[in-house]
Design a protein that fits this description.
By secondary structure, the chain is an all-alpha fold. It is built from 18 helices and no strands. It has a single domain, classed as MFS general substrate transporter like domains (Growth Hormone, Chain: A). It is globular.
Length: about 425
């Protein structure tokens, strides 16, 4: 298979991987009311179940990056998607709080491996000026999966049962695994985008990487912003049902809209920084401008609980997913820009672990806040995190911390590709 064709196939595989990843993780949010009713659980109980997901997610995000660097892209991705698909299927056999929390823990242990593996694959195959676009395509799959989840899970639940929805979505991941093992390969010497740069460079120890200024900045940025999208993923259906009067059929019919907008934002954000580099911008300036554009949109989230009808509330949620998508498609490309290929998985894992730790405690806080007050304070905080984090990135990661070769690569990589 030629390199150009492999790049096309890689984009398709990465997009569908995150589609399935998010289809699996969102299923519980779509049917949370049915599960709580069957097992007599409160909103706080639901928040604690999500806590166990993020507990393992935060641990394994860092661990998965290290493991992917050790196993390689092909084997690493295969291990993790097999693990999360089986864990998803087990949800269909839950008997109560304890077993549901345990299966959620297993899902959280396997799902984060997709991000270090994707960043590593993009680093291997894609020139610098197109990396954000490919990471945008990869992350667009999360929005597609999030958009499909209310439709697919809602239809299966209404037609069969909530248990069947978990089993069916888990099986799809095993189908993807077969396609991955059959189609994906690592680049031959001199073929990949990074092959000529670093054939002999060995990655630094993990503990040394996490102490670098770049890794700490990326980790802090994700610590403050990742919980915002986790809130939309896990709590938007419950918000629409509790405070906007939706039933499961209405969630199925309308809750997909913010995620479609987010999917467009992921591709747009990745395209934007590449287009700016083509116009002569440096790589650091282009990446950070894309992030700043996303951060500027986020304050519209504050309007969601105060607007008079559900349609405007969903529109405010669309601003969250759009702004976060522009932000993330560039932020998650920075590990590939700032570090060598044998370090990318570890740095991606470490920074993602920071976001997952924040998400873990955010689930407990959201459950408590919703049970005792309302969703309004949550939306206010969600609208402010990205602008504050953008200021942090500009302050802590000035352009001089980017490797000199990224500036040189930015000018010519579009022509080379």
């Amino acid at each position: 298979m030629t390199a150009p064709r492999m790049r096309v196939i890689l984009g398709i595989l990465l997009c569908t991987a995150t589609l399935l990843n998010y289809l699996d993780r969102l299923a519980i949010g779509i049917v949370s009311v049915e599960i709580r009713q069957q097992f007599s659980l409160t909103e706080s109980d639901y928040g604690r179940i999500l806590f166990f997901f993020f507990l393992s997610y935060s641990i394994m995000y860092a661990g998965s990056g290290w493991l992917v660097d050790k196993l390689g892209t092909r084997a690493g991705f295969a291990v993790f998607i097999a693990g999360w698909s089986v864990a998803q299927m087990l949800h269909g056999f839950a008997a109560g709080f304890a077993s549901l929390a345990a299966f959620r823990f297993l899902l959280g242990a396997a799902e984060p491996g997709a991000w270090p593996a994707a960043a590593k694959a993009v680093r291997e195959w894609i020139p610098p000026a197109r990396r954000a676009l490919y990471m945008g395509i990869f992350n667009a799959g999360s929005s597609l999966g999030s958009a499909l989840a209310p439709i697919v899970v809602g239809w299966i639940t209404l037609s069969y049962s909530w248990r069947a929805s978990f089993v069916a979505t888990g099986v799809l991941g095993l189908v993807w695994l077969i396609a991955w093992l059959k189609l994906y390969r690592s680049p031959e010497p001199g073929e990949g985008a990074a092959a000529a740069e670093e054939p002999e460079i060995q990655g630094r120890p993990w503990i040394q990487l996490i102490r670098t200024r770049a890794c700490l900045t990326l980790t802090l940025a994700r610590f403050f912003t990742d919980p915002v999208i986790y809130f939309i993923i896990f709590w938007l259906p419950d918000y629409l049902r509790k405070e906007r009067g939706f039933d499961l059929a209405l969630v199925r019919d309308y809750a997909w809209a913010p995620f479609v907008v987010g999917g467009i934002g992921y591709v747009l954000g990745g395209w934007l920084s590449g287009r700016l580099m083509q116009a002569g911008w440096t790589l650091p300036r282009a990446r950070k401008f894309g992030m700043a554009c996303g951060a500027a949109i986020m304050p519209f989230a504050i309007l969601a609980p105060f607007v008079p009808n559900a349609a405007l509330a969903i529109a405010a949620a669309c601003c969250i997913t759009l702004g976060h998508a522009l932000w993330t498609s560039n932020l998650q490309t920075l590990p590939a820009d700032l570090f060598h290929g044998k370090e990318v998985g570890s740095v991606m894992g470490c920074s993602g672990s920071g976001g997952a730790i924040a998400g873990m405690f955010a689930q407990l806080g959201t459950g408590w806040m919703v049970m005792h007050f309302s969703y309004a304070p949550i939306f206010i905080v969600a609208g402010l995190m990205h602008p504050l984090s953008a200021l942090l990135v500009y302050r802590l990661l000035p352009d001089r911390y980017f490797p000199a070769e990224t500036h040189l690569a930015a000018a010519g990589s579009l022509k080379a590709s």
